[in-house]
Amino acid sequence: MKQSWEGPLNKIDDYRWEIPKTYNSGMRVPGLIYASSNLLEKIRQDQAPEQVANVAFLPGIVGRSLAMPDIHWGYGFCIGGVAATSLDNGVISPGGVGFDINCGIRLLRTNLTLKEVKPKVELLVDELFRAVPSGVGSKGKIKISYNEIRDVLRRGSKWAVERGFGWEEDILFTEEEGCMKDANPDLVSKHAMERGKPQLGTLGSGNHFLEIQVIDKVYDPEVARELGLEEGQITVMIHCGSRGLGHQVCTDYLVTMQKAVSRYGIQLPDRQLACAPLSSPEGKNYYAAMACAANYAWANRQCIMHWTREVFAKVFRSTPEELGLKLIYDVAHNIAKIEEHSLEGKRVKLCVHRKGATRAFPPFHPDVPEKYKKIGQPVLIPGDMGRCSYCLVGTEKAMEETFGSTCHGAGRVMSRMKAKKQARGRDIQQELREKGIIVKAESRGTLVEEMSDAYKDVSEVVEVMHQTGISRKVVRMRPLGVIKG
Questions:
Q1: I need a labelling partner for 114 at 20 to 30 A (CA). Which of 26, 120, 213, 307 fits?
Q2: 408 an active-site residue?
Q3: Which pLDDT tens digit goes with each residue over 264-293?
Q4: At what angle do helices 121-131 and 281-315 cross, to 10 degrees?
Q5: Contacting residues for 145 by C-beta, under 8 A, at least 6 apart
Q6: Can you tell me the distance from the alpha carbon of 26 to that of 57, in angstroms, rounded to the nearest whole number?
Q7: Which member of 72, 247, 353, 408 is catalytic?
Q8: How far is CA 64 from CA 98, 245, 360, 481, in A?
C-alpha cells in the first residue's frame, strides 16, 4: 500500500489543497488537505489522500472530508482524518475512530525549573519506569473485579478520582470531564472487558510515552500565563489510550458494521469504511461501546498521572501540591463525538469523527473549562521522542473550517519495518543521550520503530495549523526524559 498517490490536488492557497468531487463519482463532498508544499510531497508518498477521497463517499457526510498535515495511511480513514456526518441521514464508522479509542494526551505543569530537574532526570526516568507499567501486553497494579470494570467504563476519570487516583479538579481539565455520558457497558463484550481488566493504569507500547519536558519557547506570553506556563519550566506529558479493551471494541463492532453495510445497502469504495446509520441499533450500540472505551482511556491516564505525581513527590521529597503538579488539560485524538456546529448558517448536531485529530474549541465555547474561557481550549500536540511537543489553543477559525479540529502530532513517514531496516547498527538510545535526552523502553525494538527519522517534523505540522489560524501556538516543550513501552 506504499505506492505514491497521483490524484488531483487543487491548490486553494499555500496551506489548503482540495481533492475535487469530480475525482470520483461517488464522492458526496470534496476532500481538503491542510499541508505546506513540503509536507504535501511526503503526504503523496502513500495512499492517504485516496482515503480522504474514500471518506467523502460516506452517507450523510457534510462540509468536506478533511485531513490534517500529519496524515498518513490508516485503517479505512487516514490517520489525521476528520469527517462530520448528519444525525438525520449520516453514519458512524469505527474506521473513523481507530482501534485505540481515545488515544490521547495529558499535560501537567510543575513549579520546577530545568536547573532543579536536570541532575535528577535519570532518577526520575528510572522511578517512573518502575511506577508505570509499560510495553506490549503490560499488566497494571490495579486489581479490579468484573463489576468494577463496568463502573470504569461508565464513569471514566470520576471512577479513578473517587478511588484516590488524583484530585477532584483534574476532572474539570479533561475533555468531556473524563466521562462520555452515553457509555453503556452492556454493549461491550466480555472478551473486551477481560482484556481491559489487567491493563488499567498501563502505558502500552508503540508511540505511547511518558515524557519529562522543559518549556524552551513561549509564543504567546499572555495565554501561557493564563495556563500557568513559562519558559524554563518543567512539564510532564502522558500519551496513551484504551489498551486492549479499545482494540477489542473496535474489532467486535467492525464485524457488526460489515453486516450493517449489507443490511442498509450502503455503497462504499473500501470495506474498511464499514459503517451503520447513526439512527440504527448498530450505530447507537457502537457509539455507546466506543464511549465506554473512551472512559476507560481517561481513567487510565488519570491513574498514570497519579503515580507520576507520587514519583515527583518522592524524588523531590515534597508533595504534589507543593510541586504544583497540576493538570493543564487532557485531550482525545481518536474519537467520535456528537457536537453542535454551524452548517450553512444553521446550528446542527453532527457526529464528528476525529482519527489522529484533536478537538480545538475556541474561547467562550460552552465545553471549554471556565478557567480557559477567555483563551480557548488547550490543544496538546506531541512530537517524536527526539524533537519537541507543543501546547496550542483552539480558535473560531477551527469552528468555521474543521468542525473544531486540528492536527494530533508528527505523523509517520516511515513504516515500523522500514525504520527497523534503516536503524540497523545504530544505538538510538545512545544517540538520544548525546542530545541530552534520557530514554528508557521495555523493548529496544520500540526505540528503533519510534526514532525521529520515522516521523514528520512536528514543528512543520504545527506551523501549518498556526498559519491557517486553525489553532494558535502557545509554548514549545523539548524532551529531557522519556519512557516508552
A1: 307
A2: yes
A3: 999 999 999 999 999 999 999 999 999 999
A4: 130
A5: none
A6: 6
A7: 408
A8: 20, 31, 17, 40
Q: How many helices (H) and strands (E) does the chain have?
A: 16, 19
Q: Cβ of 392: how many Cβ atoms within 10 Å?
A: 27
Q: Pick the residue with more confidence: 463 or 453? A: 463
Q: What is the mean pLDDT of residues 303-315?
A: 99
Q: Which residue has the cell 492517504?
A: 48
Contact 156, 162 (CB under 8 A): no
Contacts (Cβ under 8 Å, ≥6 apart) of 162:
none
Angle at 362 between CA 97 and CA 169, to 5 degrees: 80
Q: How big is the CA angle at 96 (ends 93 and 97), to the nearest 5 degrees? A: 105
Which pTM does this prediction carry?
Answer: 0.97
Domains within the chain, CATH numbers bracketed: 10-484 (3.90.1860.10)
Segment 217-276, tens digit of pLDDT: 999 999 999 999 999 999 999 999 999 999 999 999 999 999 999 999 999 999 999 999
Q: Which residue has the cell 465506554?
A: 292
Give residue 3's pLDDT: 82
Report which residue type is found at 253: Y
